[in-house]
Amino acid sequence: MDKKSVAGILKKIGTMLDLKGENPFKTRAYHNGARIIETLDRDIEELVASGELADLKGIGKALSEKISTLVATGSLPYYDNLLAETPPGLLEMLEIPGMGAKKVKAVHDELGIASLGELEYACRENRLRDLSGFGEKSQQKILQGIELRKKYSERFLFPVAENEATALLAYLKKDERILRIEIAGSLRRKKETIRDIDIVASCRSSDRESLMQYFVNYPEAETITGQGNTKSAIVLNSGIGCDLRLVDDAEYPFLLHHSTGSKEHNTAMRSRAKSLGLKMNEYGIFRDDKRIECADEAAVFAALGLDYIPPELRDDMGELDAAEQHTLPRLYDGAKMYGLFHVHTTWSDGAHSLEQMAQACRDMGLQYLGICDHSKSAFYANGLNEERVLRQHAEIDTLNGRWTDFKIFKGIESDILPDGSLDYDDGFLQHFDFVVASVHSSFNLSREAQTRRLVRAVRHPSTTMLGHPTGRLLLGREPYDVDMEAVVKAAGAAGKIIEINSSPYRLDLDWRLGKLAKSVGVKVALNPDAHSIDGLKDFRYGIGIARKGWFETGDVINAMTVEQVGQLFTLFSGDI
């Protein structure tokens, strides 16, 4: 092992000791030792072999022994043990400008943040704004650093990909040589995270070369990774890759279907075509090598005896059978959106006041808003104790008295404690119009304990909705280990609502549980979990997840009028 590698490990040991809060003299010894090794003008193996290493000023016996072990064996048990004890996310956070070991330790100790994704989410929710040693400017700087790092990641959150694709599509549509064009791939299917952007277009064969040149000249293109007359690829300045496929207009419906996917759906479609004596690929459906002409995707499905399957459902989860039997759901499209729930204000960790958030909802043409600040256990988020809850309710009463066209419902995001109880006593919970019960701590319980916890919470008489049920942060934190099928069934039996947390960082309830939820009578709420006025509009990401989950208008409580919601909430306001 050369001196550069040895110095790197010593630095990392010092950093990990800093994160553990070890004696600063001990951590400094490793950092100083790294600098000494880096500046050596002799071969480190010679110093170890001669025994002169321990004589170097600033090294000493203990450090010399560890370096000698590294040089001789290429490994060091002390380092390996430290590495095993240190959450890898803490080391990742150190790569963000402004996040030194002390700050990483602070957010870990004070807020329980153990990954880069959790750090980003905490910044978005203003958790670092009031933390000692940080502030609003440093919070923004950290966010900028995270965005820069994400530029080179393999997957992207849905809004990032959508914004980039929308801008690129607008650029391409300016060229009149394009006949038809649409975004395809996982973005069209409304997947939670996106690897790259797929665009399909049709044109005359004679225009392909010049159109591809126009595509690769896109001002936001950073690099060209492939260029041909039928397919070209670029990487944008944001780091996301984009592919453009060009075909003749007669082939367009087939390529659009194929490029939308998913692979599993396409495989099922080809299998069905084969069973009908047909052949299907990305260029057409063929009978005896003659293509069946299809004007659009609806005709593609009709050629196989199927109703049109919306892109969101194309995951081979029973959609072909339903399309054959004419039982596909009429998916919720957001046309009926009368109000929002799970919205935070400056009473806890929001960026805008209660009145500002309510007025923004009025400006959106909504009928109601369900305020849902954090409860008293969420000390890190300025959670409300009982006295502050009553003061907030007085403000809500004042605003409700002022407006005749809008209503604020009194809600709370009550922490689910490890035993499954809520963090206000049963009597006090009666003060709320609705309660969103959420897990914010003790993520590492066993599967059995976590399942019992959530099942007990949804069975609580005062629980109205289960919030972000798996606790996942997309690209940042895995869901906790829980039997969600059991939780969904318990919610159905208790007549409880489950939110589709529409924050693009969560999109939780997972859409794969949608059909089960529908089958047991669970309704969903598309909750933005907004911490600012801009965040209110995140509900639209929840629409895509609701559609992927087979949910219809009648399954979504946001599609209820203010009067209907008021009546619904009375079902949860009985005596404990």
Summarize the structure.
Helices cover 42% and strands 14% of the residues. The protein is an alpha/beta fold.
Question: How does this model look, in words?
Answer:
- There is one protein chain.
- The N and C termini lie far apart (67 Å).
- The chain has four domains: 3-150, DNA polymerase beta, N-terminal domain-like (DNA polymerase, domain 1); 157-247, Beta Polymerase, domain 2 (2-Layer Sandwich), CATH 3.30.460.10; 255-328, DNA polymerase, thumb domain (Beta Polymerase, domain 3); 339-572, Metal-dependent hydrolases (TIM Barrel).
- With 576 residues, the chain is an alpha/beta fold.
- Strand 16, helix 21 and strand 17 form a beta-alpha-beta unit.
- Helix 1 (3-20) runs antiparallel to helix 2.
- It has helices at 3-20, 24-38, 44-50, 60-73, 77-85, 88-93, 101-111, 116-124, 136-150, 158-173, 185-188, 208-216, 252-260, 263-275, 297-303, 319-324, 354-363, 386-402, 447-459, 484-494, 514-519, 539-548, 562-569; strands at 156-157, 180-183, 193-194, 196-202, 221-226, 231-236, 241-247, 279-281, 284-287, 290-291, 339-343, 368-374, 407-415, 434-438, 465-466, 497-501, 524-527.
- The chain is built from 23 helices and 17 strands.
- A seven-stranded parallel sheet has the order 11-12-13-14-15-16-17, with helices on one face. It has a five-stranded mixed sheet with strand order 2-4-7-6-5, sandwiched between helices.
